Each structure stands twice: as C-alpha cells, then as structure tokens.
Amino acid sequence: MKYEKAQSVLPECIIQEIQKYTDGGYIYIPRKNENKKSWGENTETKKYLYIRNKEIFNKYCTGISVKSLSKQYYLTENSIRRIIRKQKKHG
C-alpha cells in the first residue's frame, strides 16, 4: 500500500469535508468489497505453507515425533499438532 497526497486524487470540497473529522491525520480508505483479495493472493506464501504443512504431515506419518518436527520447523508443538489435525481432516 502506498500513500498518495489527497490533493492529487480528491477534489478540494471533499478534502475540506474530511478535514472536519480529521485535520492533518492519516486515514485509511478500504478497498471496495469486489476488489478485495484473499490473504496470500499476491504472494507465494499460501502455496509455501500448503507444501510445508503437507511435508510436516507426511513426516509425522513416517514416525517422526511432534517434538522433533517442532524443532525442525521452528514451530511450537501445539502448532505442529494443529497442522496434523487439519491435514488428517482435509487429507
């Protein structure tokens, strides 16, 4: 997200109206619902986590302990258990 000067994108009358509510402050204008993107849509993060979680589950199925996986992936044991539960559920 980048900042834009209000004077560059808004008419003066709208700027004056906004100044009644916040004078000199920062304001966030949310995207329209139809333009919103889901988490991870702009990056490879979602794909990376999917692959990582499958890998964790597969290693668990071969007998690697939750404690060992926790150390290997730098996650808490609870996080590893949550990943395993979700993988069991969604296969």
UniProtKB/TrEMBL annotation:
<dbReference type="InterPro" id="IPR009057">
    <property type="entry name" value="Homeodomain-like_sf"/>
</dbReference>
<dbReference type="InterPro" id="IPR052411">
    <property type="entry name" value="c-mor_Regulatory_Protein"/>
</dbReference>
<feature type="domain" description="Mor transcription activator">
    <location>
        <begin position="14"/>
        <end position="89"/>
    </location>
</feature>
<dbReference type="InterPro" id="IPR014875">
    <property type="entry name" value="Mor_transcription_activator"/>
</dbReference>
<dbReference type="Pfam" id="PF08765">
    <property type="entry name" value="Mor"/>
</dbReference>
<dbReference type="InterPro" id="IPR049739">
    <property type="entry name" value="YraL-like"/>
</dbReference>
<protein>
    <recommendedName>
        <fullName>Mor transcription activator domain-containing protein</fullName>
    </recommendedName>
</protein>
